[in-house]
Every structure is written in C-alpha cells, then in structure tokens.
Amino acid sequence: MIGTIEVSGIRVRCIIGVLPFERVQEQEIRIDASLDLDFAEAVATESIGATVDYALVAKALSALAVERKFQLVETLAEECASLVLSRWPRVESATIVIHKPAAVPEASDARVKILRRRNQ
Q1: Residues belonging to the active site
Q2: What CATH number does the domain containing 72 carry?
Q3: Is the pTM of this model over 0.90?
C-alpha cells in the first residue's frame, strides 16, 4: 500500500548562492518534499512510528539548508534527498524541489527538482 507524504513550501532563510552578496545575505527559499513509502503498517496500527513524522522532516531539511550554506540549489536538493533516505528507512523514494524565488528577477520562481530512489 504505497502512499505519498508531501510537505510543501517549507520556508527557510539561509545563505545560498554563488554571487558575492549571496554568500553574506540570507534569502528565503522554499523546499517541497514528496516521500513515497508503504502505509500498510501505519494504517493498521495508527502508530507514528510506522510512518514518517513530516514535522521532523521539515525541521531536518530546514536545518540542513541553514547549517551548510550551499552554493548551488542542485547540491542542496541532492543532500536533502540523501538525508531523507538515510534518516527514514521506510521512505522508498524522495522527490525534492528547491524554490529560489529571487534568483531570476523576471520570473516569479526558479526551482530545481530531483527524484531519488533507495538503492539508486
């Protein structure tokens, strides 16, 4: 019984980017995480231990972005997926989208999206 947990629009103020001003001035990014896992045990037991606590996922991804001060959103996306797959073994695949709204002044948003599967 595969299902998907989605946490979208996680707002994070962090240092991210390659331009000189981006290395010293925080900017807001948003992170979307879509996690595929088997819901069968969680449905049968109604136990949070049988699923993924999405509040903890949001906190972990936010902390990663703030602490690591990435230059590329691509690297942040990859590290977010890696963190989810290593910390939550029930997750079979993770889709991560990093939004950087201020990256392109002429656009409302710029984003990077990746999909990573366990054992890939």
Answers
A1: 100
A2: 3.30.1130.10
A3: yes
